[in-house]
Write a structure and sequence with these properties.
alpha/beta; Isopropylmalate Dehydrogenase; 2 domains; ten-stranded mixed β-sheet; 41% helix; binds 3-isopropylmalic acid; binds magnesium ion
Amino acid sequence: MSHRKLFLLPGDGIGPEITAELEKVIAFMNTKADAGFEIEKGLVGGSAYDAHGVAISDDDMARAMAADAVILAAVGGPKWDSVPYDVRPEAGLLRLRKDMQLFANLRPAICYSALAASSSLKPELVEGLDILIVRELTGGVYFGEPKEVIDLENGQQRAIDTQVYDTYEIERIAAVAFELARTRDNRVCSMDKRNVMKSGLFWNQVVNRVHDEKYKDVTLSHMLADAGGMQLVRAPKQFDVIVTDNLFGDLLSDVAAMLTGSLGMLPSASLGAEDPATGKRKAMYEPVHGSAPDIAGQGIANPLAMIASFAMCLRYSFNMIKEAEALDAAIAQVLEDGLRTGDIMAEGCRKVGTAAMGDAVVDAFAGKLAA
Ligand code: IPM
Ligand code: MG
């Protein structure tokens, strides 16, 4: 039995509650399917700040680097609104992404048919939606230097963030998007602001070149990122894979997420490059939603995005495709059965809490695996 090392970072707010439901899934896989998952846990975000005065400690960073996969729930909350900028909760998340070099962020937006009516768009626009946003995650304006506020010594200050992309950063994220497209509907739409930004023009040129050199079989189109946002709410099903930079990806993935009915439903994977020696890649999985401090500790949070993030982990880190599909099917099943946490509650459905939802997924998962 192979040992698979998972490093769990429950973080803040509802993070610990949804992590507890994921642990049920993992425990089930260890006892029933002999999966050999080993769990370590650490602190990130406000919880790390309270314990160590930093957003993630060097020790926990080292554990994250050594794990086969990191699973992070959520960080942040009003309690830490006034902590120094460089140790704010989000800094822990950004350090994990940067130090582990997780440049490829995969954010699928799938509309479960049971939830089509909860979308703010008409059900026919979102029913059957299955798009994948591939967001560049370690470059662009998030990390570009200079990043500072300077004093102009005339009574004014100037705030500077820097949008910067090197060739290799665009090449590798484009390659990820094209490769993934080949496993889906074989279409990529690249989004940038080449009408305003040098870096957008460059992004566009590099994506075109990578396409010409290696991925001619994939259909490539381009959109300006603002038009892309508009098209996402006008006719979202026109897209298969969208590839875009760090900042536009942040915005567009929230838009795409909401199409599916609830931000509480969406998983994500952040992947590094494959190590040629071992074939492994560093990886972190997290729900797209935040720490929801307003409902923390009440046992009502939706654990499904967290569990769906683990399904991505099974798929991308451990190549356990059968199990990943069974877990995704289990989530769809509990929704079909009418179970709902408060965020996705609808008429005629049964409202359940975090733990009951987790239990129901484990039951359905057992059924799917046995089938
Ligand atoms: C996300 C979040 C983060 C980001 C925040 C929490 C720093 O919005 O993962 O989309 O901006 O990348
Ligand atoms: Mg975001």
